[in-house]
Amino acid sequence: MIEAHELTKTFSDKKRGVITAVDRVSFTCRPGQIYGLLGANGAGKTTTLRLVATLLQPTSGRATVAGFDVVRDAQSVRANVGFLAASTALYGRLTAREMITYFGRLNGMTDAAIKARIKQLSAELDMDEFLDRRCDKFSTGMKQKTSIARTLIHDPAVMVFDEPTLGLDVMTARAIVKFVRDCRDRGKTVIYSTHIMSEVEKLCDTVGIIHGGRLVAEGTLPELRARFGEQDMEEVFVKAVGGEAAVLAALKN
Amino acid sequence: MNFSNVVTVYLKELKDTLRDRRALMSMVIIPTIVMPALTFGVGKIAAGVVSKARQEIPAVMVLSGEDSPGVVAGLRQDKKLRLVATAADWKDQISDKKLRAAVRIPAGFEAGLKAGAAEPVIIYNYDGELKSGFSVNELERYFRALRDQTVTARLTERGLPATLVRPFETKRENVAAPEKVGGNLLGGIVPYIIIILCFTGAMYPAMDLTAGEKERGTMETLLCSPVARVDLVLGKFLMVLTGSLSAMILSLTSMTLSAAVAGMVFAAKTGPAQMAAMASQAQGAGGTMPMIDPLGLVGVVAMVLPVAVLFSALIFTVALFAKSYKEAQSYVAPMIFIVILPAVLGMLPGIDLNARLALVPILNLSLVCKEMLSGVWHWNYIVIIFGSSCVYAGIALALAVRMFNREDVIFRA
């Protein structure tokens, strides 16, 4: 369960002054559901998810993840979150097994529990063949599998995905989408950010459209289609953010 | 702070770093092989060049002096001088280093000596040029002897004893133990090398574990773990400290070992008494390796510890600001000058430890090491220096933890 209430994050930038990256965003993600955060580049998706994963602290507003407050109990939040982003890389000089073991230990697991968990994950993700090879020689698919195993080692209740398919080939991206769906089917709370409309249509139970740091529309796919009178998700998105001009202006920033 | 988390992070960073060839280069190979080789090699070459210059018989030209054949013949017969034919371009020859020096014997020099006094002899040389300097020494030696002979002859003529103008002599003898001579000679250079190595040993891991991780995207992965950030900083910091200390200890060990080997070879050839004499000769050349008080070396290592912490924490903090390894290098590389300056100041012979200098970081270390290596233990200064270094190190470490907690530093883009 993720509950965000009026989450706000501002940064001060030398050239542009104070920037409000996330502006009073409120939403709720329930277990067994995928909440999709849809937005253009720079809309505030990554910042929102980093606030949820406690990598950043909110300027104002509050949020609880798995029942823990993101400010007061950040460590407990992280212990219950699996965070996977295009930007979360692997240690190239460690093997996949060492990488996953390291994160198991950081999560306070015993070596026996880590060993058993790796065996299970490796079988599920079909990783046996490259488990003891160094990550810097991996293909993107192998890297992605290792990253997934890393996020799942402590079996978190909440999964946070920040554009996980960015820059991946079709087959790897499909595997990721399937994996996200598996997480939901196992009853995990999933939040998923993307700018790819087809992924939203395939995956998300609830969609929040974020633009300029603000959540401009929220609802299930049928609700959004009905509200904006469009069948195509892309058209829904453009209408929700205030037309093509608004999209272009946001991208220029 | 959770100690087992710190250890987990440290062990992972250690494993990661040991698999990194570049890190091994800066932490192990350079301090073990390159630094001693450099120190000994440069010393040996310098000593070789100097003794070769000493052995050379300098070419000297006599200008005029036709009416003083005795003096010219004396110069010609001198085994340590080689007279060359007089030429008009003698000034150019000296500048071109074909000629080491020229000497002008004034007209009527010998006649003047017989009568009482003569005009001065002028020696032309190339100021600051080593070999020219040696030839001047030889010329002066010759004329000094000539003067002494003249004085002695005049005294004998008048039936007076030589002690009339030379009532006593002075002699000098070394009473300092060989390790004290060594401490004074090497006391300056050893702390300098240790300080530099401490810094360079910390540089690579500090940059790789901060800016390098940001660049490769592993920092964000690491921050997702439920470990407190202070544990991450301390684990990483310990790795940086390991780099710093391993560079220092490895180089000290390899230098001590090679000094021992060189000493054994040397002692087999000559006696121990000659060794001390050679050591003082080596002052300018830095050639042979005099002995160092081993207890002083232990003291040096102990004093360097807080400074290694200071360096590790400072480089860590600075490198943390950078977005990439390259950017970190451009911040950290200039820092080495800030370190070298006080270290070099400490090498200078005139500067001695006092209460105020004992509080200047790095310089105080350099000075106290010089003393400890020559067997002098000023405990009050040692306490002040160790204490102040610990305070500085603590501040730097606190700063590193603070910076790591700042999201605008960690997520700087």
Please render the helix and strand layout as text.
The complex is a heterodimer of chains A (253) and B (413).
Chain A: E1 2-13, E2 17-29, E3 34-38, H1 45-52, E4 60-65, E5 68-69, H2 74-79, E6 81-85, H3 96-106, H4 111-125, H5 140-152, E7 158-162, H6 170-185, E8 189-194, H7 197-203, E9 206-211, E10 214-219, H8 221-228, H9 233-241, H10 244-252
Parallel strand pairs in A: 3-8, 3-9, 6-7, 7-8
Antiparallel strand pairs in A: 1-2, 1-4, 4-5, 9-10
Helix pairs in contact in A: 3-4, 3-5, 8-9
Chain B: H1 3-18, H2 21-55, E1 59-63, H3 69-77, E2 82-84, H4 90-95, E3 101-104, H5 109-115, E4 122-124, H6 130-157, H7 178-186, H8 189-216, H9 218-223, H10 229-269, H11 272-285, H12 294-321, H13 325-332, H14 335-347, H15 363-373, H16 379-404, H17 407-410
Parallel strand pairs in B: 1-2, 1-3
Antiparallel strand pairs in B: 3-4
